[in-house]
Amino acid sequence: MPYGQTMTIDISKMSRAERILWDHGVTKAEHIDLDAIASRHGANVVYRPLGGCEARLVAYGDSAVISVSSASIEGRQRFSLGHELAHWLCDRGRGFLCAKEDIGPQNAEARNVEASANAFASQLILPSYLVDSWIGSQAITLGLAANLAKDFNTSLTAAAIKLVRRASGQSSVMCHNQSRLLWRERSLKFPFDYSIVGQLHQDTDAFEIAFTKKAGMSRPKKESADRWVRGQNTYRLTVQSQSVKLPDDNVLSLITFLE
After folding, report:
1. Do residues 180 and 198 make contact, with C-beta atoms less than 8 angstroms apart?
2. Cα 67 from chain centroid?
3. Reported confidence tier of residue 53, pLDDT bands at 50, 70, 90
4. What contacts 124, CB < 8 A, 6 or more positions away?
5. Which of 95, 94, 126, 120 is nearest to 108 (CA)?
6. Whole-angstrom distance between the N-terminal and C-terminal Cα of the chain?
7. For residue 93, what pLDDT band results from cuts at 50, 70 and 90?
């Protein structure tokens, strides 16, 4: 996806992770080399089998070794590396053994050290100063998230969460299994008094995807908002929804309220 012809950047508003990228001359997604950044900051990156965790940081003095699970897909490996880099740069003096549940962009809003590392990793892999230009005026959909994930070499989940967090409209991305809601992220303008349904509605594409072997991403679909959210008069509102089955068999969905 092409970037805008001009890009106005206020460096003073950058996060610490973005400043690191900027100092490394990153002006395009393909410039983001996490292994090189780690090396410059004294951390050697090793990809190897890790039992029971996604990544591990072992620090000694001004040097460190970051081990990343060789069994994970590349997008997951990059996020895990970004997460451990956050620990190395922001939490120096401690060692970390990070399990799968510790590492993930959906956990970046909690107030703890792992959440802070997730937020840092998200900005390393999907820096806002590049993503905002990339999004432009495009509609927020899972299809767009798939393109973002491809261009920035990250996971679909991380890309979808980033899109929703930067969305100017009322959007939410969520993950369900067959029995319950696992997590959700909402845009700043998403109605604060609306909540995401705890179980998938039987008339949604997400329900079909969850309970069948249907593969691929559903097409964007307009439907009643009360299939997705709980709140006053949601039956009068309309959302656009799109869903896809993740490798772990959970279902990722993105909805946006329509005017």
Report:
1. yes
2. 21
3. confident
4. 17, 20, 21, 32, 34, 37, 82, 85, 86
5. 120
6. 27
7. low
